[in-house]
């Protein structure tokens, strides 16, 4: 099963005999709660999932968006109607970060059939897809998390991978270089990490570049068949989007979920600045 699907493909599947469960995970970093936007209109049948409260644990020592407790996450998914043997499609407003976070969590906890709507809600409506203000009441699902389905790094493993493999920094280049840091305690990057902004994985409409272009991009950054690849970002959200882009390109990658918000919280960890790893 591919990791993404188009709005047209989703329309076909929803009209078929085995429609996927739909999860609306619209979210804005530092922005307003997106539940009112969901209430105003969403894909028919989609259930809203809150990234800050349900796709992350409480902020603290683990970072700004630490992984949720798997059992708590599983309960959220079951309430949303997620079943172990039924496909799931997640979408957001179009940026793709939040949808990728939900995709990564479901894959990491063992769900085999989860995809992201490429281009999100904007792509859906551009194809003439309808929206609904009705709040669904899904039948309780049976999904039980089994963590380990995707690679996960801690701080020490991320640091080691930056030396022995390829560690990609998915944040904007100016944050990688340490020129600005609007959120975390210190600017810069993990020594040895390579700058790879998530924004360069998509086109002007927020849709992923074709797989061959993504493969060429990541090859230019150092990815190869023999290279172990890891990703981090600010707090583990846009990094999930980069892992998804790598998946589209056919390159497996692990996520440092704590990311820079976790790394920079410890003043004893080294920090590099400037354009070079």
Characterization of the model:
The chain is an alpha/beta fold and 277 residues long. Helices cover 32% and strands 11% of the residues. It has 11 helices and 10 strands. It has a 5-stranded parallel sheet with strand order 1-5-4-2-3. The chain is globular. The model has no long low-confidence stretch (mean pLDDT 96).
Spatial strand sequence of the major β-sheet: 1-5-4-2-3
Strand content: 5-15%
Q: Averaging pLDDT over every residue, what do you get? A: 96
- How do the helices and strands follow one another from N- to C-terminus? EHEHEHHEHEHEHEHEHEHEH
The biggest sheet amounts to: 5 strands, parallel
Shape: globular
Rg over CA atoms, rounded to whole Å, is: 18 Å
Q: Helix amount, in percent?
A: 25-40%
Label the structural class. Answer: alpha/beta
Tally the beta strands. Answer: 10
Point out poorly predicted stretches. Answer: none
Count of individual helical segments: 11
**Head-to-tail CA distance between termini:** 35 Å
Can you lay out the helices and strands and say which pair or pack?
Layout lengths: L3 E2 L1 H8 L6 E4 L10 H6 L6 E2 L2 H4 L15 H10 L8 E4 L5 H12 L5 E4 L2 H7 L25 E2 L1 H10 L1 E4 L3 H5 L16 E2 L15 H10 L8 E4 L5 H11 L5 E3 L2 H5 L14
Parallel strand pairs: 1-5, 2-3, 2-4, 4-5, 6-10, 7-8, 7-9, 9-10
Helix pairs in contact: 5-10
List keywords for this structure.
alpha/beta, five-stranded parallel beta sheet, 10 strands
Outline:
The chain is built from eleven helices and ten strands. The protein is α/β, with parallel strands linked by helices and 277 residues long.
């Amino acid at each position: 099963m591919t990791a993404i699907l188009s709005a047209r493909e989703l329309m076909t599947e929803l009209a078929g005999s085995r429609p996927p469960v739909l999860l609306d995970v619209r979210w804005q970093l530092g922005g307003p709660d997106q539940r009112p936007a969901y209430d105003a209109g969403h894909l028919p049948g989609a259930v809203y999932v809150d990234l800050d409260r349900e796709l992350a644990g409480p902020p603290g020592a683990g970072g700004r968006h630490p992984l949720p407790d798997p059992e708590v996450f599983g309960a959220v998914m079951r309430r949303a109607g997620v079943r172990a043997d039924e496909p799931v499609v997640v979408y957001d407003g179009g940026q793709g970060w939040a949808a990728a976070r939900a995709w990564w969590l479901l894959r990491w906890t063992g769900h085999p059939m989860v995809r992201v709507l490429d281009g999100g809600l904007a792509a859906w409506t551009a194809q003439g897809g309808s929206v609904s203000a009705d709040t669904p009441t899904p039948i309780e699902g049976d999904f039980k998390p089994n963590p380990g389905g995707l690679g996960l790094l801690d701080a020490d493993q991320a640091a080691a991978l930056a030396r022995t493999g390829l560690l990609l920094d998915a944040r904007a280049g100016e944050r990688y270089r340490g020129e600005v840091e609007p959120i975390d305690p210190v600017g810069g990057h993990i020594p040895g990490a390579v700058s790879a902004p998530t924004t360069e994985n998509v086109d002007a409409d927020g849709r992923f570049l074709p797989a061959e272009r993504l493969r060429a991009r990541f090859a230019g950054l150092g990815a190869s068949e023999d290279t172990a690849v890891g990703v981090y970002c600010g707090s583990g959200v846009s990094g999930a989007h980069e892992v998804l882009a790598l998946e589209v390109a056919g390159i497996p990658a692990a996520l440092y979920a704590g990311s820079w918000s976790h790394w920079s919280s410890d003043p004893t960890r080294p920090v590099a600045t400037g354009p070079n790893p």
